[in-house]
Amino acid sequence: MSDQLAGFWYLRLSGHKYEDFQKERVDSVLDTIFKSNVMAFGNGKLGAVNGMTKSGELEIVSMQSEEIWTGITYGLSSTMMMEDRRKEAFLTAEGIYNTCFNEAGLAFQ
């Protein structure tokens, strides 16, 4: 799930570092999400899809898992930025920005 680290993100925004999460595990999760939910889905040009299976297939258990959510994608990008993953962060954010504002015309204002 692309929002797997939402709790970690909230803690980091609150000033916590790695008291509750091991950095190695955070890095591993970010690697997996970027590879599976961002790059394997739309080649990084759409944002982060909510759900992917271990085998790299789109998760079809629910409608939500097949969707790309703007807020989740920006939250994921913010987490990547806080973890010094600038390239991945900007590529992920660029994907959802282009999808919403340039392709689909969904200007959330």
UniProtKB/TrEMBL annotation:
<dbReference type="GO" id="GO:0008422">
    <property type="term" value="F:beta-glucosidase activity"/>
</dbReference>
<feature type="domain" description="Glycosyl-hydrolase family 116 catalytic region">
    <location>
        <begin position="1"/>
        <end position="109"/>
    </location>
</feature>
<dbReference type="InterPro" id="IPR052566">
    <property type="entry name" value="Non-lysos_glucosylceramidase"/>
</dbReference>
<dbReference type="Pfam" id="PF04685">
    <property type="entry name" value="DUF608"/>
</dbReference>
<dbReference type="InterPro" id="IPR006775">
    <property type="entry name" value="GH116_catalytic"/>
</dbReference>
<protein>
    <recommendedName>
        <fullName>Glycosyl-hydrolase family 116 catalytic region domain-containing protein</fullName>
    </recommendedName>
</protein>
